[in-house]
Amino acid sequence: MIQKVAGSAPPGQNAARMIQTNAPIRQLPAWQRALTEAFSNPLELLAFLDLPRDLAGADSAFAMKVPRSYAARMEKGNARDPLFLQVWPAPAERAEVAGYVDDAVGDLARLKAGGVIHKYQGRALVIATGACAVHCRYCFRRHFPYGEALASRDHWQGALRELAADRSINEVILSGGDPLSLNDEKLAEFAGAIEFLPHVKCLRIHTRQPIVLPERVDDALLAWLGRGRLRKVVVLHANHANELDDAVARALARLASAGATLLNQSVLLRGVNDSTEALVHLSKRLFECGVLPYYLHMLDKVRGAAHFDVPEAEARAVVRAAAARLPGYLVPRLAREEAGADAKTILSR
């Protein structure tokens, strides 16, 4: 998912078209230049990974997008690589499975003006953009109507009105898409505006960009992130230890140096991280990078992702086994989000 100062584009659009700027490509920040070069053609990704061209892929309105630096972490010749499986449009996406729907967590029922979703007491989520640096095939918002609910429009005015009107909100969560798909001027504008809402104490940013595109953590990002009275929490999204290479580790260290608290949430995915060994390695590597595991989510039942599902009994067993090998602070809470619930359902602690 990528983007310029304002607006967004549907997830299936080409990366280069989505950077709407008059500046020559060479003048763009490194992370935006990298996004113009991301893989969007499945055959090109297969060739890069030395995989056979006849490896079946699914035609989908939810197009493939993979940054080249992320693809470089995949094992060449291995069609079961855990990073590749997260981004490859598998034929199983076409299967219609009972119970798997477009709006898996009930976001639309709680959506307010200005792209604000208010589900939980004291916290409100802001849909900043529909763009991302990578299209994860299990994404619970892969069918979300972003064109109707983008907070970044009109200098955030709709979202700011909603947030100002409800003094029970003490934490604002920037989500999307991926909010770091917006440029730093746009993000700094929002962070600066909510500084003037005295009831808001914390700004939380849900992002996968530092994981899949570590170039995104640059001086411009750190400048606004480190300013102001708001506590900053960055909730990252890594699912496998192989995602956390040295470049990512350096990017995370820079985020921490700006004063941000770093947490991680993962999704339990069949074939990707559904083993005790994978979860233990992920938690240990996160800690090496200065990040604490936060949630391990059961798969949200979004249409097109049923092939990633792990049964709850199996998930509980895997987490119990991981807990026997890890200190308590490195064991993420296994959780499920249910439409209409007042909080996430915690399945294990």
Task: Describe the model.
- It is built from 13 helices and 10 strands.
- It is α/β, with parallel strands linked by helices.
- It has 2 domains: 15-94, no CATH class; 107-348, Aldolase class I (TIM Barrel), CATH 3.20.20.70.
- A 10-stranded mixed beta sheet has the order 1-2-3-4-5-6-7-8-9-10.
- A hairpin with an 8-residue loop joins strand 9 and strand 10 (345-348).
- The longest helix has 13 residues, at 276-288.
- The chain is globular.
Give me a quick take on this structure.
This protein has 349 residues and is α/β, with parallel strands linked by helices. It contains 13 helices and 10 strands.
Taking all residues together, what is the mean pLDDT?
90
Radius of gyration equals 19 Å
- Please give the alpha-carbon distance between the first and last residues: 33 Å
The dominant shape is: globular
Strand order of the largest sheet: 1-2-3-4-5-6-7-8-9-10
CATH class of the largest domain: Alpha Beta
- Classify the fold: give the CATH topology of the largest domain: TIM Barrel
- When the domains are counted, the total is 2
Largest sheet features: 10 strands, mixed
User: Going by CATH, what is the homologous superfamily of the largest domain?
Assistant: Aldolase class I
Helix content: 25-40%
Order of helices and strands: HHHHHHEEEHEHEHHEHEHEHEE
The second-level CATH architecture of the largest domain is: Alpha-Beta Barrel
Overall structural class, as computed from helix and strand content, comes to alpha/beta
Number of strands: 10
Low-confidence stretches: 1-20
Number of helices: 13
Beta-strand fraction estimate:
5-15%
